[in-house]
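Weekly sync, protein design subgroup
Attendees: M.S., D.O., the rotation student, P.L. (late)

Item 1: inverse folding check
M.S. brought a backbone from last month's batch and wanted to see whether the design step gives back something sensible before we order anything. D.O. pointed out we never logged the input encoding, so this time it goes straight into the notes. Structure tokens as presented (56 positions):
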């Protein structure tokens, strides 16, 4: 009975990890898209040229 529970627990952990990795991939894609949009649609700076799109 214990080996069966261990196998089921391992399958549950691997399924959960796979789902989390898939969600993290979608989050990474969304962040890259937002970064690219911010890079393309940045506002002009005070010096007349194109300014930095980040704040730091």
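Designed sequence read out in the meeting:
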């Amino acid at each position: 009975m214990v080996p069966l529970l261990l196998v089921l627990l391992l399958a549950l952990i691997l399924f959960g990890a796979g789902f989390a990795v898939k969600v993290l991939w979608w989050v990474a894609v969304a962040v890259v898209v937002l970064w690219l949009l911010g890079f393309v649609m940045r506002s002009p700076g005070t010096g007349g040229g194109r300014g930095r799109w980040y704040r730091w």
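Discussion: The radius of gyration is 22 Å. Helices lie at 2-40.
Action: P.L. to compare against the previous round before Friday.
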